[in-house]
Structures are given as structure tokens and as C-alpha cells.
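Side project, low priority. Logging it here so it doesn't get lost.
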Amino acid sequence: MNKRDVATQAIILATIVAIVVGLSSLIPHLRPERFAPVALPASPQMAPAQLHVYVSGAVSHPGIYTLLESSSLGDILELVHARSDGSASRIDIIIDDAPGQRTPQRIDLNHADPWLLEALPGIGPERAQAIVEHRMQRGPFNSTAELTLVPGIGTATYEGLKEFVTVTL
């Protein structure tokens, strides 16, 4: 799987997580007696569906994970060693449940964490951190071409990754 697919899956994963988080806030208000369980038989020809999960924030092991579709949120949090020190720290989880789709998605230079920026071609940990620092010191990028203003990123590097990035304000 290439980095473009990873970025696409990250965005889809974020959408699903947002839905799951929204629904989880409703769970305490739902009464089980109002719903009848329905079990659909699994198709013998289908392999277990996989999800690509992108996790960052208050976790010991941020990164990209491939899990079975049946994985729970608890499974994900345990896998990434979510910190439970009692603080209200944020954990971002993005779930991509449609890895076969080829929807062009791009990494947003104004919002991506360093670990996600490292997925870009030619960007390692130092350059990813330089992008974040540039953004923090000078404000958001107005165009992807401004990436060349970041120390260590020249025209050649930019040309190799410009199709994978975007900016939103």
C-alpha cells in the first residue's frame, strides 16, 4: 500500500471515528429492550474485512494500524497504550473502512500531526517537525507551494509530494 492510500484511509477512518464517538454518547440513553438483535450469516467467500486505523494524541504508540473490522474501540485504545492519567488529553482516531476505494485524499499541511506528515515522500521526522514548527511560528500555510519556505524542503522535494498535500484554513 502506498502513502496516498494511507492518507485516504486516514481521512475515512477519521469520519468513522467521529460517527462512533457521536453514537457512543447516545448509548447510555438507549434501552436494550427497544431493539431486537439481528445476526446476518457471514459469507464463506469473504475474507474478514480490515480497517486502517490512524491514532495520535495521548497515546504511547501513535501510528497506523491494520485491524479486523470486528475490533472495538477498547481494542484500539489498548493496542496504542492510551494514557489514562486522569487528564482530559485528546486522542485522535481515524478509521478507514474502505481501503479498496481510490478516492484522492490529501494530507492537510495546516492540521496534520508530525507522524502523519512523515508518511509523505521525502519527509522524515526532522522535516515533519520543521513543517509543524513553521506552521506554529508563521501561521497556517496559504498554499501548498509555501512548503518550500520550510527549511530543508526544496523545489525537488515539493514536486515529489505536492499531489499528496493540501491546505485548509
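Brief comment: DSSP finds five helices and five strands in the chain.
Revisit when time allows.
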